[in-house]
């Protein structure tokens, strides 16, 4: 309804302040008496901390204090938690070593903090840090899963023998083995899903302030979920009680999952602010981001797919090793299990699946959810396998997919998920048409004549968003419920504030959430203010990740709006002397249907607050809240087709065309959706062709700066062609599915499938850099 | 960054005099190498002597046989110079694929050459054309200037004032960009001098910095054509191998980039 309602391409309200440099980020917080923290970090991947001598540093100019890990222990500050309990297939709970916010006796990855200097300026803190003498006794380190699992490998945690956190499985092993024994064809594939560094534009930061008269803390932090941060900080870390801690996540410059977690630096800043009785600021630099932001992905998998003689899938068998780094981060345990293996059915009818996942400790930065979190790993596996199968079975890759698509909904997969709706064939058809699939052979021939190798690759991904029904995730081991809350406040003059537990760090909620309200009331988005990111303002919330803000966060707003509208209609009916059932809302007015009798929203609101003339027994005011707990995951899905051209001289791959057809259900703001897809595609292409976090054998990071870690730049990605097909999600009132991660989930297999098509063989891993592509071409030449 | 004292001299002599007074000083030009290194606390000059605003260090001039670029001229100004475009288009092309716009607006030819990064672009042109590097003390031939990774014939206090490139009969530059840094993963500058000499320099490839490539020079001397290089084999010995490319890959790139540079040179 209206030009600013659902479906309208409303320009982002928040962009005025972002584009003009008026955003207010954590580092912009200035408080009288502010001190600055600088962490002293381990240069070793694995070492015993033998001693810390801070005596000289404490006398340096501007130094307020130097606090060490031991003091943290003495103050009984809790260890970092992992909030999702996953058990091994034999029923034993996962085996976790302790993760203290600063390491008192053993460091297990390069960059782990052992002490912190608090000084009047950041530079003084850095100067003093150089004068702190930390004595280490180096221990042998394991930087790869292969090294960690070797017999006699150095052990990270006594609690986890063999460096194994868990050995988990899903699905029916016997049924799956039976399916394989009946198979006409079996296709197998070994895959590496490369480790990525999130690299949000804004590094993490924290400003902590302690008010000793009130015994109250305020923490400004770069968080995607300030309420969860408060909950964890108060319930587990013994730093502050929940009602004595206000957490504010103001403008946050990108998260991609890495800002879900509550990190040691925030804990230490809070604790230190009380210790030194001064506010403490810590702003990470890019090096600290590379070393300490939770990394993503890092799987090694072996996958096999069984087919019958008609190319129907009979079963899927997967064995995955997942690298967790040195410690179990907040949601790490769920990522390669419930967020990964539950999506292994892809868009296909697969009668039986058996997947085993072994979680492994290594002396590297902890790994956790990163844009897509488990689903990119699943779609990469399934879609590489489908393409490989098509080539081996000599079936057209589109056809093989079509033969096996799920077409009846709801569809129960063998791995927990129950797909509610979709039309996978429609997306594939649209993508084939957009790319001009029939014209590909001619394009390939033309490229060949020009000395180039062309290839085309598919990816028909499905993912799960809107995490999630609280009861369901609770039964799977989650420590929290994953609903969302909202409060709609209609002010006495009729403007509206919406308080939401979702958190916007680039998603555009201030616009899309306002569009929902504008749509329902027929008013302008300028009449609506979205309030988020402050535990003092919003009562509670679970935050933004897993593309959940539209499906869950907006559904809560929807519910609150229904309550507000119901009450407003009662007031309007009373004032118009009409029956409540006859009141309709149009263009900001409450009208008696079929008459010209109407009263504008501001008048209704004013009546609610003056309370001079309300229906008998009605409470004054116009403000309602709602909690929304989803009934199911949502299942965005789509078809991506990537066309590449390789320069055999250099191995450089150009993406000459990229078509993305997504089904996100209802689109609230197509422009913002396209932006989300573009960003996701760039990240998926980054994973496929450029990005890789690499450690040497001693656990030293080789790619800890942008000089070595290749982020995608504008000229690395093509001009995307993005479109949509639509099946409305039946599980939530808006019919939305979520669009934040799909691009990153669906694109990397499409790119690699295109590259392997051009190469003519499968021997290449992500990232397919020019150097690797060239080596792969030499392999082929040697073979010929 | 450690504390440092910033100076902005008005002349070359004043800059040199300041350096004499502060032996722990560093000259600053575009700052695109020096400032990041200082921010990481890997360099701690007591004083910074800014050359970027010295008028005598800025400007481009072409004579009938040389293109002379003063040391503090920015890359951007080089890419915009009609004189440079006319005299040696390959230099303008090289500059246009160096870094990104932010780097090109500030970075200078003098800073690039003084720094001698093993993957920098300009050293390839200086060596292939055997340019003359003029300093406030002397003239140094391109052949004698580069002395391995990040090291040059310059003395600590010496200021590059200009670089004089002899105008070649033909020249071309082709660069394979490093995926992360966008420096040269390997790039090659080919030149045929007016007297018929062929000189070819590769950057980004060798473990010891910019280098001549005799095998390619010989083949092109015999026959200046792309096809002349088809059968040339470049050894991977002494070449860099890292996560972005093996030594064999870089050896291949030397040849392929040389071919593309010849094609560009015409
Ligand atoms: C993101 C990024 C990308 C880049 N990409 C590339 C690339 O693709 N190719 C490439 O070649 N380079 C690249 N560079 C490096 C860039 O070219 C630098 O600007 C250059 O290396 C140094 O030039 P400058 O003028 O910035 O020198 P500065 O950083 O100011 O100085 C560098 C050194 O040279 C000395 N120096 C400067 N001027 C003189 C002088 N006249 N006489 C004597 N000594 C002097 C200084 O004392 C210092 O030691 C990149 C840099 C960045 C930050």
Automatic annotation (TrEMBL), chain A:
Ranges for domain Aldehyde oxidase/xanthine dehydrogenase a/b hammerhead come to 20-140
The organism that produces this protein has a lineage beginning with: Bacteria, Pseudomonadati, Pseudomonadota, Alphaproteobacteria, Hyphomicrobiales
One Pfam family it belongs to: Ald_Xan_dh_C
Q: Which domain of life is it from?
A: Bacteria
Q: Name one GO molecular function term.
A: oxidoreductase activity
Which keywords fit this entry according to its UniProt record? Molybdenum, Oxidoreductase
UniProt signal peptide: none
Name listed for the protein in its UniProt record = Carbon monoxide dehydrogenase
| SMART domains per record | Ald_Xan_dh_C
Q: Which organism is it from?
A: Tardiphaga robiniae
From TrEMBL, chain B:
Domain FAD-binding PCMH-type, chain residue ranges per copy: 1-170
PROSITE patterns in the record: FAD_PCMH
InterPro entries per UniProt: CO_DH_flav_C (IPR005107), CO_DH_flav_C_dom_sf (IPR036683), Diverse_Substr_Oxidored (IPR051312), FAD-bd_PCMH (IPR016166), FAD-bd_PCMH-like_sf (IPR036318), FAD-bd_PCMH_sub1 (IPR016167), FAD-bd_PCMH_sub2 (IPR016169), Mopterin_DH_FAD-bd (IPR002346)
Q: Which Gene Ontology molecular function entries are recorded, alphabetically?
A: FAD binding; oxidoreductase activity
Is Magnesium there in the keyword field?
A: no
Keyword flag DNA damage: no
Sequence intervals crossing the membrane: none
Could you list this entry's UniProt keywords, alphabetically sorted: FAD, Flavoprotein, Oxidoreductase
Lineage: superkingdom: Bacteria
Pfam families from the UniProt entry: FAD_binding_5
Record's protein name: Carbon monoxide dehydrogenase
Q: Which organism is it from?
A: Tardiphaga robiniae
């Amino acid at each position: 309804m209206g030009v600013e309602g659902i479906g309208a391409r409303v320009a982002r309200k928040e962009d005025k302040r972002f584009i003009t440099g008026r955003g207010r980020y954590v580092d912009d917080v200035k408080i009288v008496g502010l001190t600055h923290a600088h962490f002293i970090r381990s240069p070793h991947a694995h070492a015993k901390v033998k001693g810390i001598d801070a005596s000289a540093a404490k006398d340096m100019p501007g130094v307020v204090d130097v606090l060490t890990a031991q003091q943290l222990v003495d103050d009984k500050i809790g260890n970092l938690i992992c909030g999702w309990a996953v058990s091994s297939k034999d029923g034993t709970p996962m085996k976790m070593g302790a993760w203290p916010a600063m390491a008192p006796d053993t460091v297990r990855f390069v960059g782990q903090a052992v002490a912190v200097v608090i000084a009047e300026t950041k530079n003084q803190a850095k100067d003093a840090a150089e004068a702190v003498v930390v004595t280490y006794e180096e221990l042998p380190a394991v930087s790869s899963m292969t090294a960690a699992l070797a017999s006699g490998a150095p052990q990270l945690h006594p609690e986890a023998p063999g460096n194994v956190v868990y050995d988990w499985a899903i699905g029916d092993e016997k049924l799956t083995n039976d399916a394989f024994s009946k198979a006409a064809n079996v296709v197998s594939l070994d895959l590496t899903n490369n480790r990525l560094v999130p690299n949000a534009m804004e590094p993490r930061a924290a400003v902590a302030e302690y008010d000793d008269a009130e015994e109250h803390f305020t923490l400004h932090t770069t968080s995607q979920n300030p309420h969860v941060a408060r909950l964890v900080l108060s319930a587990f870390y013994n730093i502050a009680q929940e009602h004595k801690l206000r957490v504010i996540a103001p403008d946050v410059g990108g998260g991609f999952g890495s800002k879900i977690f509550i990190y040691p630096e925030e804990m230490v800043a809070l604790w230190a602010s009380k210790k030194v009785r001064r506010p403490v600021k810590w702003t990470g630099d890019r090096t600290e981001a590379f070393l300490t932001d939770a990394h993503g992905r890092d799987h090694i998998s072996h996958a096999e797919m069984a087919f019958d003689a008609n190319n129907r899938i009979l079963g899927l068998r997967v064995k995955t090793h997942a690298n967790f780094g040195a410690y179990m981060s907040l949601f790490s345990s769920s990522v390669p299990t419930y967020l990964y293996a539950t999506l292994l059915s892809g868009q296909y009818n697969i009668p039986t699946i058996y997947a085993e996942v072994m979680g492994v400790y290594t002396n590297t930065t902890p790994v956790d959810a990163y844009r897509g979190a488990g689903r990119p790993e699943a779609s990469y596996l399934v879609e590489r396998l489908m393409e490989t199968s098509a080539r081996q079975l000599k079936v057209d890759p589109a056809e093989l997919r079509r033969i096996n698509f799920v077409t009846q909904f709801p569809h129960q997969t063998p791995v927990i998920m129950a797909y509610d709706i979709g039309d996978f064939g429609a997306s594939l058809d649209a993508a084939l048409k957009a790319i001009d699939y029939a014209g590909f052979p001619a394009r390939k021939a033309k490229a060949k004549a020009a000395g180039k190798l062309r290839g085309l690759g598919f990816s028909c991904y499905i993912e799960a968003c809107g995490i999630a029904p609280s009861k369901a995730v609770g039964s799977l081991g989650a420590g929290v419920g994953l609903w969302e809350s909202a409060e709609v406040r209609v002010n006495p003059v009729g403007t509206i504030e919406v308080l939401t537990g979702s958190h916007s760090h680039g998603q555009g909620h201030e616009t899309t959430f306002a569009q929902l309200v504008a749509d329902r009331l027929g008013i302008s988005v300028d009449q609506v203010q979205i309030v988020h990111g402050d535990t003092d303002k919003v009562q509670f919330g679970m935050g933004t990740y897993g593309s959940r803000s539209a499906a869950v966060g907006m559904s809560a707003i929807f519910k609150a709006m229904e309550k507000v509208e119901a009450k407003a209609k009662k007031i309007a009916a009373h004032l118009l002397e009409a029956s409540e059932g006859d009141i309709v809302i149009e263009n900001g007015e409450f009208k008696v249907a079929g008459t010209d009798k109407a009263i504008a929203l501001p008048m209704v609101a004013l009546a609610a607050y003056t309370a001079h003339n309300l229906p008998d027994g009605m409470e004054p005011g116009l403000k309602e809240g709602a909690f929304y707990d989803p009934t199911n995951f949502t299942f965005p899905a789509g078809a991506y087709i990537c066309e590449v051209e390789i320069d055999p001289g250099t191995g450089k791959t150009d993406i000459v065309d990229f078509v993305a057809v997504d089904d996100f259900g209802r689109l609230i703001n197509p422009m913002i959706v396209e932006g989300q897809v573009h960003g996701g595609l760039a990240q998926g292409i980054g994973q496929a062709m450029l990005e890789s976090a690499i450690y040497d054998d001693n656990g030293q990071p080789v790619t800890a700066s942008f000089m070595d870690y290749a982020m995608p730049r504008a000229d690395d990605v093509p001009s995307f062609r993005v479109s949509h097909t639509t099946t409305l999600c039946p599980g939530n009132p808006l019919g939305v599915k979520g669009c934040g991660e799909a691009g990153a989930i669906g694109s990397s297999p499409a790119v690699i499938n295109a590259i392997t098509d051009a190469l003519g063989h499968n021997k290449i891993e992500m990232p397919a850099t020019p150097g690797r592509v060239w080596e792969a071409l030499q392999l082929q030449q040697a073979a010929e | 960054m450690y504390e440092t004292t910033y100076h902005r001299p008005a002349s070359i002599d004043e800059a040199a005099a300041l350096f004499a007074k502060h032996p722990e000083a560093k000259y600053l030009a575009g700052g695109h190498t020096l400032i990041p290194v200082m921010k990481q606390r890997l360099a701690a000059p007591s004083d910074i002597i800014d050359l970027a605003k010295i008028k005598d260090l800025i400007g481009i001039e072409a004579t009938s046989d040389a293109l002379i670029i003063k040391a503090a001229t920015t890359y951007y100004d080089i890419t915009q110079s009609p004189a440079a475009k006319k005299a040696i288009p390959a230099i303008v092309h090289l500059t246009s694929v160096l870094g990104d716009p932010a780097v090109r607006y500030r970075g200078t030819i003098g800073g690039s050459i003084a720094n001698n990064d093993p993957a920098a672009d300009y050293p390839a042109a200086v060596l292939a054309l055997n340019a003359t590097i003029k300093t406030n003390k002397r003239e140094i031939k391109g052949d004698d200037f580069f002395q391995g990774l990040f090291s040059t014939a310059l003395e600590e206090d010496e200021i590059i004032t200009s670089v004089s490139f002899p105008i070649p009969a033909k020249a071309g530059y082709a660069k394979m960009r490093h995926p992360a840094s966008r420096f040269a993963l390997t790039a090659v500058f080919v030149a045929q001098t007016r007297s018929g000499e062929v000189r070819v320099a590769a950057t980004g490839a060798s473990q010891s910095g910019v280098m001549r490539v005799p095998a390619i020079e010989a083949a092109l001397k015999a026959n200046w054509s792309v096809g002349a290089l088809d059968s040339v084999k470049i050894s991977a010995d002494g070449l860099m191998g890292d996560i972005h490319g093996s030594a064999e890959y870089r050896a291949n790139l030397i040849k392929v980039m040389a071919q593309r540079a010849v094609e560009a040179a015409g």
